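In the present case, backbone shapes were mapped to integers, as reproduced here:
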Amino acid sequence: MNGYFLTDRGQVRNHNEDAGGLYMNANHQTLAVVADGMGGHRAGDVASEMAASNLHKKWQTAEKMTTPEQAEDWLDLAIKEINEEIFSYATENEECKGMGTTVVAAICTTDFVTIAHIGDSRCYLANAYGFKQVTEDHSLVNELVRSGQITKEDAEHHPRKNVLLKALGTEQHISMDVHTLGWEEGNTLLLCSDGLTNKLGDEELYALVKDPIELEELAKRLIDVANSRGGEDNITLALVHYDSQQSKVGMNDAP
């Protein structure tokens, strides 16, 4: 397994409300995390950092994931515990009241990938069949698309595009989407915040992801394109490539 994580403030925001990383447990299994603090809410950066850092701490002591059921249960329990921690912190600290964050997390083993998410940070899988978004945005516009009220094209420019239907830490009890996919050597997983997907469409993402270059260079190219198109939001991504080499991960917290 080979991975790389990169986050960037963008061209407009004066601070970064995204967080995340690539984390290894004692059994050399990888957990990829991207969290996007809710824009327009105070302390979004606090919420996203709590989500990422607490998942990291829990993963360090996690047992080896041998079945999809075990991985799904672990993510469900860990994220629900972190939700309560963020909610309690916001309740006890007036300056953080109302804060929240998206989260998308993927446990990557040699046999399967288990993905959990809340909000509109996404996960994509590139394999022999192409490139596919494997998460469903928990957003108002996506629900309008799903119900047939607007088209995908309408959604791109909808005035309420950034309205989330659920987020981590905003309610005491939450539900998330958790599912498992098979994958194999040569496949690539992309987790990202909407600072990337608001600037690059799926076809553009696939054209870059399938290019046979180092993951560090790929990550920088993706963020450079988003920034060249305005970079109004923070941009964060995690890449995991299934190869036959010994596991290695890289991280770079850009300003």
In short: The chain has a mean pLDDT of 92. The longest strand covers residues 2-8. The domain at 2-253 is CATH 3.60.40.10 (Phosphatase 2c; domain 1).
